[in-house]
Design brief:
single chain, alpha/beta, six-stranded mixed sheet, globular
């Protein structure tokens, strides 16, 4: 099993949690981004730099993952694609996407996009807070305990 990270927009604190988990559990993590990403020295942490462009990192992840892998992403479209391939998707706020809830998340995403386009709402999600970080760390630990 691999943990794939949609690393371009992944918060630094989430990457740090993932780095500690990789070394503690000896599970391989691959960070995919269109820019260079700092990683600590480790046999379990790797990066892949892809070309710039819309969905290039997402497409790379989808093409290279294997059934049962975990993807860390806030991108609901990417989460939907990986779930369809038999993988798991975890949001940096600790929300697991699944076949049971992904369509609801997609509908909410699409509605928010429409509302932003009309100017009824502006901005994006709230800044990651301590509760979100703790929810992520707990969800990751539970996943790793159940999928070793």
């Amino acid at each position: 099993m691999y943990i794939w990270v949609d690393a371009d927009a992944c918060p630094k604190i989430i990457k740090e949690i993932l780095f500690r988990a990789a070394n503690r559990t000896k599970i391989n993590i691959i960070l995919v981004a269109n820019q260079s990403i700092f990683i600590p020295p480790s046999n379990y942490i790797k990066t892949v730099k892809v070309a710039s462009g819309f969905d290039v990192a997402d497409n790379y992840i989808v093409c290279h993952l294997n059934e049962g892998d975990l993807i860390v992403t806030a991108d609901i479209l990417l989460a939907d694609a990986v779930i369809q391939k038999g993988c798991f998707a975890l949001n940096p706020r600790g929300i697991f996407y699944s076949t049971n809830n992904i369509k609801q998340h997609l509908s909410t995403r699409n509605l928010n996009t429409e509302l932003r386009n009309t100017g009824l709402i502006t901005g994006g999600p709230a800044t990651l807070n301590k509760k979100d970080i703790q929810l992520f760390a707990n969800a990751l630990d539970r996943f790793l305990a159940n999928h070793k």
